[in-house]
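As agreed, record copied across for absentees:
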Amino acid sequence: MRIGIVAEFNPLHSGHRYLIECARKIADENNGEVICVMSEFFTQRGEVAIVDGYTRAREAVRSGCDMVIALPYLGSVAYGDDFAKKSIEILSGARITHLIFGTENDDVSIFEEIYTKQQNTNGEEYKKLLKTGLSHARINSVLYGLENNNPNFSLAYSYYKAIREAGLSIQMIPIKRKGQGLNNSEMLEEEHLSATAIRNNINDEGVERYLSKDMLADLRKENIASESELFPYLKYKILSLGKEGIKRIYDVSEGLENRIYEATLKAENYSNLVELIATKRYSNKKIQRILLHILTNTTKEDYKVNFSTNNFRVLAVKKHKAAIIREINRDGKISLHPLLNSKNSMSFEHDIKVARIYEMLFSNKDIFRENIQIIDWCWRADSIKWFCRVSFLFAVDNWSQFCVNFTELIVVDIYTLTKIYVIIL
């Protein structure tokens, strides 16, 4: 068994750890692994990642994932179906058997009915509703009954659709979300805060209970990134490109370049710019994605050339699971690269450009000269579990029970046991 997770971990908090723990439990019971594909510099909603991908991937492995693969920019900053399609393509190439995900509604039995309705819907009917000014999310709700107020459920359907259309046999494992709603930005006493609330209140002591000490330390020593800092660079870029230049940017259509240019002349800051461009049909999230495409000069041609890539970077891996990389590369569906060199860098030209822009704005390190994060030991996940089992071994009253416990224990990972032995000594 190999379980896949699609994530942004922006940042990785207690709710994410709960999902990873669910995946880890199922994987361990079936001698399997947990593989994650994660956005790196910018997110699906058109937001800036709070810290770089290596930092967040390191935390994901410390929390229980075996390996984290970077989702390229064109898959990360994309509408739901493209985001899901590229993520599933990567995880399928990594030979996952199951996909685990958090959702507001964990009854996904309706997905096949929605998919059938989509296939049978007249395209003209969809276009007619578009002309009324409805957003794609609202139209999907009207025509197919897809809940447009539950974003994770909608994204889960995109995963289902990607799996279905690729003819894959990946099984879906929905985990009902707990705690605060996805886009809630308030500091509340919840079992889990949303990532939005944590980002917006990152200096509040109240967020500390939702982040590990390692994650909190990493955030404290990095420059915290936010969209507000993009405005002067965006304004310069938009005015430099002009309307014709904006027209060539990926996802700009139907004269939207005029609205973007005129709004830039009036806007006072980033939030104001988004509000001036957005309409009932073009959501804030779509506009935020387009603004990132403008910032990174991501054109329609870039999408045609780079979206179909099968070369991907590994951000982090457990040391004793590194052989998974060779196994996946031998299979040949995708190519994983632990680090960049003169031979493979041409396959990552667009992501290198995006990384340089992110670094210029928010980081003083050369991210593409970073090595894969090899996590030698994960006390929070594996060591606690096996330490408890070692303790359990001696917590018996008779020799026969000791033998039963010992027989169960010796089948676990020798590498892990060796580490525990050293700690105990």
